Task: structure prediction
Amino acid sequence: MRRETKAPAELIVLGIESSCDETAAGVVRVRPADGPRGEILANVVASQTELHAPFGGVVPEIAARAHAERLEPVTREALNVAGIALEEVDLIAVTAGPGLIGGVLSGVMFAKGLVAATGKPLVGVNHLAGHALTVRLASPTPFPYLLLLVSGGHCQFLAVRGPRDFLRLGGTIDDAPGEAFDKVARLVGLPQPGGPHVERVARRGDAARFAFPRPLLDRDDAHLSFSGLKTAVLRARDRLLAEQGGLTRQDQADLAASFQAAVRDVLAEKSRRALALFEERLGRRPSRFAVAGGVAANESLRAALEEVAARAQIPFDAPPLPLCTDNGAMIAWAGAEWYLDGRQDDPTLAARPRWPLDETSPALLGAGRKGAKA
Amino acid sequence: MDHHSTRSGPILAFDTSGPWLSAALVEKGVVRLARHEEMARGQAERLFVLLEEMLREAGRAWGELAALGVGIGPGNFTGIRIAVAAARGLSLALGIPAHGVSRFEALAESAPRPALLALDARRERLWLARLGADGPEEPVLVPLAEIERHPVLEGLPATAPVIGERAGEIAARIDRPARAPALTLGTAIARIAARRDPAGATPPAPLYLRPADAAPPSEPPVPILDA
Result:
């Protein structure tokens, strides 16, 4: 739905997120006149990590059950922390996809309940737009900029041209790096979620001990692949298991370090190509090279990306960690950006398990009958 | 909820626990409006449109409601969550209680007692609950093929009817009468919610009756030699 809008002086926005394994609500005060600028009043996240840990990955039905019961207390807490009554909220934003449908649907229905009762405007936000636009919540960032979104479920390079104008320059053709970190943690006997544990033991590992592949570097584009890399780690581990009957702590560290180095090299090289593609497709340089998503928390990867930006003489930006992982403030912020851009939804708003940000570029994965996943 | 005001006013109830959208508005003990739409999909998109149509028709506003009733299942997991999440959003924003009502309680509303309440649990199994003088007992999961010999039937009079899903089939197997529920699901839930104590309402939660389908990883743990 499109709506003619006159920008108000200030918007208090409630944002609700439940598309994966975090139930989250945030409250953001937005001043449209200054750029716009946002101030986070509350950002409450109820993580489900412990519920899923025994299963070695996120179980959709467990996630859906937790979201359905946690949305209300988490929202209540966010309003309390912000010191804002629901009546004072000007806009309600909710993740409407892409993601695990059970969680997204619970969030959307909960938000529609709030909206019906209060008469506030509703915006159904694309979760990926939330990540992509959060760069602008953290610090003033003019369009267009290059964004690497890298998380447990996603990996893509986006030219962000406006609040609802994204051009995908490349992305993974199979797994996301976050998924690969989790898998490698399981393979070498480290706990879940894998990212922080692999990074921790990699610090005392020898990254040169295993020569893991750097997939797709033979291709000139900005597409990535991590599935073959996972298999290579599996093979190396199985060889060690066959020879020794187990892994030493040094083996664990060396496997982790060698794997992380491969991911780092691929992300860095593909970032260089994405920067070149950006200039080629948009005819200008990006205002920033920004990285968002949970994997951006990895210091080694972050440092490599920062170096790519420095060499290209483009400012680098990564939002603070609590804004990189799934949260409600980013949905509130993206909701405000979409609302100010003329977007508003009605009570028929549907949850979309698949919702690519760039609906024009051909799908990279999951391009079945139902269309591209993300 | 801790401090809901006890207002007098209409009670709105809804249920999406199966391929339908069932809703009713009860006021002063009288059913003002009842809607029951069969629909295999699209309940999430239709729910609030229907509820607003009903309020308009009754000449009522959201802010006038005294309480909500919501179907918590058992039934379709996604369907139950649609209704429960919507009810919790409304309850938070309106500051009124939302009463969760199970499908067994709804079937028991205005049913003769004793009776046998039945819900389809899929894969040729049923959830069966005895309805006694004090309401429905704990449901048990019974394969259709074993129903004749099941302990849930012990002492159930020959005149006690079977009410609910696949009632005709079950009744034929156990030689008892079958009876259709007297009320739509929405109406039954609204009437039950209207009798509940608003002060004692706890936030509604889905009634799954089955744990989530999840298996721990099949791979054996990696032996760490120098752990």
